[in-house]
Amino acid sequence: MSTPPNDADHHETLDRDLHRFSHLESATQYVARPMVAPGIALVFMVMAGLGAAMLFGGSQSNLIVVAAAVFGAYMAINIGANDVANNMGPAVGANALTMGGAIVIAAVFESAGALLAGGDVVSTISKGIIDPQVVATSEIFIWAMMAALISSALWVNLATWVGAPVSTTHSVVGGVMGAGIAAAGFAAVNWQTMSKIAASWVISPVLGGIIAALFLALIKAKIIYQDDKIAAARRWVPVLVGIMAGAFSSYLALKGLKRIIKIDLQTALLIGTMIGALAYVITAPLIKRQSEGMENRNKSLKVLFRIPLVISAALLSFAHGANDVANAVGPLAAIVHASEFGDFASKVAIPTWVMVIGAFGISFGLFLFGPKLIRMVGSQITKLNPMRAYCVSLSAAITVIVASWLGLPVSSTHIAVGAVFGVGFFREWHHERRSRQSAVSRPAEKRIAPEERRRRKLVRRSHFMTIAAAWVITVPAAALLSGCIYLLLASFTH
């Protein structure tokens, strides 16, 4: 005879069922979560389109501007997801910033850079890639710019999904080139400018890597391998902060103040030297006070480098906002200008509402999709600590100044990622050299097998190959995509 179920059994069954429900609820949340970010991004794009419609009205010709505003917002979101990771990745990888802190700082400083110091005049034919005289009518020009905007946004979106940090500037360049070829043939392209851009694919990351490696060598020699590390840090950290302040001041004077005043390279370097010296004077007593009572070990050094690293990441974001947002919204500004005035100048003013779309789009993109690439750049290429990450930030600012002096169009993405690789490869070389020295001085010790040595590589080769491949094919892929999109758009309108 079966016994009647008691209260304890009831409670057990109820607990089990509720447990199942909680599992079901978490599973539903897990399924729904991947749709939240694209949903918010879509709402932002629709709002950008509605804003443009309110400004311009809904007539046939103005619908093109509305569509361009939607795609401009899409492009800005993709820049936030991909490009900004290069500025914040090293600081997050070095544990100087949490992911949330990095996203907030980057969103604020990127937007400030775009809105306060972003160039109000942009070369809409993206750095003189296409001769405007070759394009027959303003309608053809508008569709070419639209194709460039859509293709570059799609390409950056794909690269982010794959996990490859690519240059959004180069994506726009490829898009403009492809649409120009589709609209007016190969003669429309300024191949001399294109060859300069192609040269920058190699020069940017190599230069960034070399400068970052040199700074890391300096930090190792002058601070880490000294008997009294704290005394060495008191002497050298203010110097490094001064160099950082000077480099960023020169960079922003050169790139970010075009709206207020045009500054040549010599004046920018003079401004940088003065601000660098001031930063040194302010930092020296602060570092001295902070280092009092610290133990003579590497862990203490990481603490001293943490705040300068956070400041350099914020400055990098400001500089990126000032420099790169205009490149992203350039085609949108060109479409707005051509629709309003019926002509297409080589340079046009960027309306404030276009810059607002760029600035807010970057913040949304970073917040919704940025963490994937921030982790990739910060911790998956090579292991970073505050000293190594600081070398990456310093290198990024100095390389841009050197490139401006040489007159080379460079990509901030290529420089920052090249600097991360430079730090990683320097660590490998340095580790190998010390292993060889210890083998000579202590031959009785066990030798490391060649297979084990290969396994101990400090830079992930798979990421190196993925990123290099993505860089090489960015311009041709964006160009091909843009050409196809242009032909598709032209077929609909004829």
UniProtKB/TrEMBL annotation:
Pfam families on file: PHO4
Annotated family: Belongs to the inorganic phosphate transporter (PiT) (TC 2.A.20) family.
Swiss-Prot/TrEMBL keywords: Membrane, Phosphate transport, Transmembrane, Transmembrane helix, Transport
The keyword Phosphoprotein is annotated on this UniProt entry: no
Membrane-spanning intervals of the chain: 35-56, 63-81, 140-160, 197-216, 236-254, 260-282, 303-322, 350-369, 389-406, 464-489
Keyword Transport: yes
Source organism of this protein record: Pseudophaeobacter arcticus
Record's bilayer topology term: Multi-pass membrane protein
Protein name per the record: Phosphate transporter
Subcellular location as annotated: Membrane
